[in-house]
Amino acid sequence: MKASGDLIQFIDKNLYELYDFSARSVGKACFRGERYSVVSLKPSPWANTVFALKLEAGDGCSDLMVGISEGRLPNKISTGPTTYPPDAEALLLAAGFRMVSTTRGMYLEMEGRRRSPSPPGFSFSLVDRDEDFAAFASLVTANLFKTPPGTARPFAQVLSAMDPSRAFCLLGREATGAPAAAACGYLDASGCGGLYFVAVDVASRGRSYGAAIAGSVLDELERRGAGACILQATSMGKPMYEKLGFTDACEVGRFALPESGDAEAAGGAG
Predict the structure, then answer these.
(1) Would you give the end-to-end CA distance of the chain in angstroms?
(2) Distance between CA 270 and CA 266 in Å, rounded?
(3) pLDDT tens digits, one per residue of 211-260
(4) What is the DSSP letter of 144?
(5) What are the φ/ψ torsions at residue 159 (nearest 5 degrees)?
């Protein structure tokens, strides 16, 4: 079992490993450098990011700015607990980047989790068919990423290519059989779990589907040997994760150059 302080580092490390894992699954390289790393899964709306940032005082942002303006780097910079130096976000802002969004990095030691009962009529299953990957991707891109319908197909192709022994998707359905909720789990090389893509259809909210499917991912991660889990929560999702036992640990930022267009889908927990 990792100590609580160690788990904070996995809030972005686990996500970065998932980026790398997903890129390799579809035959795309994930560049890792001394000052930053990059993954691009275009045309998928997820995981097009500059991460693992190590900035220097002075012109530490200049190569990022040039790379973005020339189209060589994605216009989304992720910051978190492993970003260096501690005032890296201030350096980005001073260089002309803007903060696009923030999420809360959270962690859970499985022995301290709280379980949520499944609502009546709600069921879920592991996604393993093309049509279910398509339904999963449509639900997530529409309700979490908020990207156009055409972005669902390339996202589904990324999800379906990943080894299900490491990454798995759950699709929740109402009694009618209609897809209503989605969530993904990932087990990194160290044995720490990650909870991602928690999304509930807007017409099905307020019925505890999000907590139920998130809890089901935790059940599966625990069954696979994870002793802890991390996630990145939106402000809307944070209270739900606290009820499940997650601890709020840090802020994770997303930055972009305004003149180069908006940052793309964050891909957090939701």
Answers:
(1) 26
(2) 9
(3) 999 999 999 999 999 999 999 999 999 999 999 999 999 999 999 999 77
(4) I
(5) -60, -45
60 exposed, middle or buried (CB, 10 Å; 0-12, 13-18, 19+)? Answer: middle
Going by C-alpha positions, the residue among 198, 192, 15 that lies closest to residue 116 is: 198
Q: Answer for the pair 39, 11: CB distance below 8 angstroms, yes or no.
A: no
Which residues neighbour 199 within 8 Å (Cβ) at sequence distance 6 or greater? Answer: 139, 140, 143, 144, 181, 182, 183, 210, 270
Task: Determine the residue type at 232.
Answer: Q
217 closest CA partner among 241, 190, 244, 183: 183
Q: Are 114 and 244 in contact (CB under 8 A)?
A: yes
CA–CA dist 99, 55 (Å, integer) = 17
237: left (phi over 0), alpha (psi -120 to 50) or beta: alpha
Q: Sheet containing 123-126: give its strands across.
A: 31-32, 37-39, 49-51, 77-79, 247-256, 98-109, 228-233, 193-200, 179-187, 167-173, 123-126
For the cut 90, the answer to whether the pLDDT of residue 185 exceeds it is yes
Tokens of 8: 């904070």
Query: In angstroms, rounded to a whole number, what is the distance separating the alpha carbons of residues 253 and 263?
Result: 12
Cβ–Cβ < 8 Å for 39, 31: yes
pLDDT (tens digit per residue) in 87-133 = 899 999 999 999 999 999 999 999 999 998 889 999 999 999 999 99
